Amino acid sequence: MPFERMKSRVQRVALFSGNYNYVMDGPVRALNKLVDYLERQGVEVLVFAPTVKKPAFQHVGTLVSVPSIPFPGRSEYRIGLGLTPNIRRKLAKFKPDLVHLSAPDLLGLSALKWANKKGIPAVASFHTRFDTYPRYYGMDWMEGYLTRYMRNFYHRCEHVYVPSQSMIDVLAEQQISPALRLWTRGVDMDLFNPGQRDMAWRRAQGIADDEVVVAFVGRLVLEKGLGKFADTLDLLRTRGVKVRPLIVGDGPERENFEGRLSDAVFTGFLSGMPLARAYASADIFFNASVTETFGNVTLEAMASGTPAVCADATGSRTLVDDGRSGYLVDYDDLDSFADRITRLAMSSDLRARFAERGLQCAAEYSWSTILGALHIQYEEAYKSYSPQRSATLARTRFGRTFDLLARG
């Protein structure tokens, strides 16, 4: 039963996040859903995160603003500057039973050290493959260092909650943590469904009824596979395959992306009903990103009855039933991306079959069930926590290094 209360030993949770309300993305949406669920269960949650004067949306729960600075080169995001004396006082007064860390950033690192020192179990959720980001900005050499850092960080957490089994497999191979647990994501099928398709809206965007619309939904940043998306559309154009790009989202790469896709419809950021309408009004969803840990946008597209063509990578690999609800393609195989989109563009019957299977797959992701399972895992982390183990980890070489990094 949705929101059925369970008897909980974890009554107070301190949640630390690098972003909770100032940019809307998949991780933020999941964290707000989590806080809403926990509060409905009678669990008190205090969220610590950077804030801005004009947030992207109205957040759920009680948010404590953390001092922060803009992220260099990506000023829309902010870096929390650790635990100030005021934050420490608020934590001491709150007396959390559990600390939840949503990123291995400076704020998360400081909170992890604080929890280990106070003998409070810390858990973490894995939302983003930060270690892969440098490859999109000419800094591939950093990837190995970031992976080692993440391994050290997550080894000090009781549980690490990962959004897809395919991502768990990758993290296990990298030995990121011995305590990887599945915390998948849900979709609101009352909002995202094929009934939101709106031909009048398409016409208002200048899209003809017989045009096949290929949609991208997400932040307009390089690590979302924008280059691969544009290259594929260029290849389709040279082959004489007529499709119309629909770009839903905003970000620092918008101007460059607009230059690459002169015939595209750019809606800017959408949420709620307008977003659901855009998904359902497209004919093909194209996600070439390899940085997704789950792929909320892919799940939302499937729930909207829009077949997906995705890079064969973590997240999408779990969601897409290759050849039945969509296609999975090797990221480096541009021809295959173009081939799969062409196949769907040329056959409305194939799109309809894939859409039906995608709806069946999406129906398996219920938010109440998923969040209830995470609540149970909170309880397991609390019961199994050993302060002695945390103290032992703190005495290791990487533990001492972390203490130095998080000092202050």
In short:
By secondary structure, the protein is α/β, with parallel strands linked by helices. It is built from 16 helices and 15 strands. It is 42% helix and 16% strand.
Keywords:
alpha/beta; 16 helices; 408 residues; 42% helix; 2 domains; Rossmann fold; 16% strand; 7-stranded parallel sheet; 15 strands
Description:
This protein has helices at residues 26-40, 85-94, 106-118, 142-154, 165-173, 199-204, 226-239, 254-260, 272-281, 296-303, 316-319, 334-345, 348-362, 367-384, 387-395, 397-406, and strands at residues 12-16, 44-49, 62-65, 68-71, 74-80, 98-101, 122-125, 160-162, 180-182, 213-217, 244-248, 265-268, 284-287, 308-311, 326-329. By secondary structure, it is α/β, with parallel strands linked by helices. The strands form 3 sheets. Strands 3-2-1-6-7-8-9 form a 7-stranded parallel sheet, sandwiched between helices. A 6-stranded parallel sheet has the order 12-11-10-13-14-15, sandwiched between helices. Strand 14 (308-311), helix 11 and strand 15 (326-329) form a beta-alpha-beta unit. The relative contact order is 0.13.
Percent of residues in helices comes to 40-55%
Shape category: elongated
For the record, the CATH architecture of the largest domain stands as 3-Layer(aba) Sandwich
**Mean pLDDT figure:** 90
Number of helical segments with 4 or more residues = 16
Q: What is the CATH superfamily of the largest domain? A: Glycogen Phosphorylase B
Structural class: alpha/beta
Gyration radius, in Å:
22 Å
Work out the count of structural domains: 2
CATH topology of the largest domain: Rossmann fold
C-alpha termini separation: 45 Å
Described by strand count, sense and barrel closure, the largest sheet is: 7 strands, parallel
Biggest sheet, spatial arrangement of strands? 3-2-1-6-7-8-9
